[in-house]
Design brief:
Largest sheet: 6 strands, parallel
Oligomer: single chain
Distance between the termini: 62 Å
Number of strands: 20
Helix content: 25-40%
Structural class: alpha/beta
Number of helices: 24
């Protein structure tokens, strides 16, 4: 065990399974999401006999990964998954890929056939390490029981280091059943490939460049939340008065109710945010990846601007867009240094001049906001999806709320119309865009934060992908509130078919749908059905606040199937060429 000090725990001999449980407890793991199978039964038996770690029995392994993601993003701790070999392991792939794209710390343990059967196409054998290599930060098959504790600790640390992400530890059956002495590494030295502090000279250059600008904008991503940099960002804005826009994954990294916030940017971002970033002379990017859903056609993205980019992952810098002032480091640490420089080295008179200099920029921004706000036409006969979001926001804005979403139109409307104030209270699938994510993620978030109200906005298409997890929510007494946008179709698909495919709705509309109210009741949950605008507020109030807190509530809301998400930047177009209606 290179780089580790070994401690024999009272020279006890244990099975590999018991060593795993003891190691997990010493790491402070209190919750595991999983589903058993033959090769992990001894490990499950040890978990049950020990009784110190809560196990959440899911109904599908994909549900386990998304629950663990929701748990991780709400708690700030890694989400932990345990599944069996073969199909158990392969069913986690989507969740692992989702966590990899969105930088979520996920610790996945997969069962494996005995080492002497590996490579022989044994029953329920798959090469879990080979399959997951492109979508994990680290993965390993443990071939010796004496290495179990070391590899588990190493993987658990790696999933949290630098840019967070998923890891996989593959556990052959004979390794978990064999006995050996429990040797617990007190310390494991893993080379840190991520710079945490940032280059001080570059940070000073960034401050100087920022203070020379006339049309600056801060473009924040999920790295703000991952690093816990939201307080430093708000202090920077308090001092300099710079406008802020956030990506889908960055929502909550800056208070969405503050006047400096311009809304989300990108394909379905606000007109103001997109126009501001593309007319700016300085883009200050923090923990963002310059994803194609943000930049549109990169040839036209922020053509007049110098770009400062803070990111902990050097591979993300100048990957899609050439950067003028790159800073590799943790966003929180870098912003702290920037604030120290501004407070100690920049005269207050210079800050005052800077704020005066950018006032014409703010006047232009306010003009865009006034002329092109987010808008839609209400109806007295049919519920508009935007109205559903707005009504939910008005009912819950003063509560301690976590919002999760599935993927599609409802996700974009939620990002536009629900004002997220704090980090860890907005949980959605960004990079992979995984339908079926929102409901299990809500379960995981509620388990992590049981005192919070957890609301999932789900499309009817997305909800059907993991609706079996209703059984998990009922069994574990997880009282999430799920609001289904029922338009009888895959809404974002039909929107594109309306715009770009001559309204030919190929394989996008449902001929058969469940009765979601009856479905909920059949699982022992509570179901509601809302079909008319006149009953929206009253029924939402009752469903969200008046039903028992330990019972999940499914709220089926019939919404206008012809409503589209606007603004919209057509694929391949410059970000300034938005469809507004």
């Amino acid at each position: 065990m290179t780089g580790a000090r070994k401690i024999k725990i009272e020279a006890q001999r244990m099975t590999g399974a018991k060593i795993i449980v003891e190691t997990l407890k010493r790491l402070g793991i209190d919750t595991i999401f999983g589903l058993p199978g033959g090769v992990v039964l001894l490990l499950y038996d040890e978990l049950m006999k020990d009784g110190k770690i809560r196990h959440i029995l899911v109904r599908h392994e994909q549900g386990a990964t998304h629950m663990a993601e929701g748990y991780a993003r709400a708690s700030g701790k890694p989400g932990v998954v345990l599944v069996t070999s073969g199909p158990g392991a392969t069913n986690t792939i989507t969740g692992i890929a989702d966590a990899y794209m969105d930088s979520v710390p996920l610790f996945v343990m997969t069962g494996q056939v005995p080492t002497y059967f590996m490579g022989n196409d044994a029953f329920q054998e798959t090469d879990s390490v080979g399959i997951t290599r492109p979508i994990t930060k680290y993965n390993v098959v443990v071939t010796k029981p004496e290495m179990l504790s070391y590899e588990i600790i190493k993987a658990y640390q790696i999933c949290q280091m630098g840019r967070p992400g998923p890891v996989v530890v593959d556990l052959p059956k004979d390794v978990t059943t064999a006995e050996t002495e429990f040797i617990f590494p007190e310390r494991i030295n893993i080379p840190e490939k991520f710079k945490q502090e940032g280059n001080e000279k570059q940070i000073k250059v960034a401050v100087e460049t920022l203070l020379k600008s006339e049309k600056p904008i801060i473009y924040g991503g999920g790295g703000i939340i991952a690093s816990g940099a939201h307080e430093e960002l708000e202090e920077l804005v308090d001092i300099l008065g710079i406008p802020v826009t956030l990506t889908l994954m960055g929502l909550g990294g800056f208070d969405g109710t503050r006047p400096e916030f311009l809304g989300m940017l990108g394909m379905h971002g606000t007109y103001t945010a997109n126009m501001a970033i593309n007319n700016s002379d300085l883009v200050f990017a923090i923990g963002a990846r310059f994803d194609d859903r943000v930049t549109g056609n990169i040839e036209y993205f922020a053509p007049l601007a110098k770009i400062i980019h803070i990111d902990i992952d050097p591979a993300s810098i100048s990957k899609n867009i050439d950067i003028d002032v790159p800073i590799v480091g943790d966003a929180k640490n870098v912003l702290k240094k920037m604030l120290q420089i501004i407070k100690s080295e920049v005269p207050k008179s210079e800050i005052k001049k800077f704020r005066e200099r950018i006032e014409p920029w703010w006047e232009k921004i306010r003009e865009w906001q006034q002329k092109f706000p987010l808008t839609y036409k209400k109806s007295q006969n049919i519920i508009k999806p935007q109205e559903l979001i707005e009504t939910t926001y008005e009912l819950t804005k003063n509560e301690s709320v976590i919002i999760t979403t599935d993927v599609g139109q409802h996700q974009m409307w939620a990002a536009q119309y629900y004002k997220i104030k704090e980090p860890g209270t907005w949980i959605t699938s960004g990079g992979l865009g995984t339908m079926g994510f929102g409901f299990p993620a809500a379960i995981g978030a509620k388990i992590a934060k049981p005192s919070k109200l957890v609301i999932c906005f789900a499309g009817d298409g997305s909800f059907q992908m993991n609706m079996q997890e209703l059984a998990t929510a009922v069994e574990e007494k997880v009282g999430v509130r799920v609001i289904i946008f029922n338009n009888g179709e895959h809404g974002m698909v039909t929107q594109w078919q309306r715009k770009f495919y001559g309204r030919r709705y190929a394989a996008s509309r449902f001929k058969v749908q469940p009765d979601y109210k009856k479905l909920a009741e059949s699982f022992g949950a509570i179901g509601y059905k809302i079909e008319h605008p006149s009953e929206l507020k009253e029924k939402l109030t009752k469903a969200i606040f008046e039903e028992p807190e330990d019972i999940p509530v499914i709220i089926d809301v019939k919404v206008d199937p012809e409503e589209d998400v606007y603004p919209m930047v057509p694929p391949g177009s410059p970000p300034t060429e938005m469809l507004l209606s």
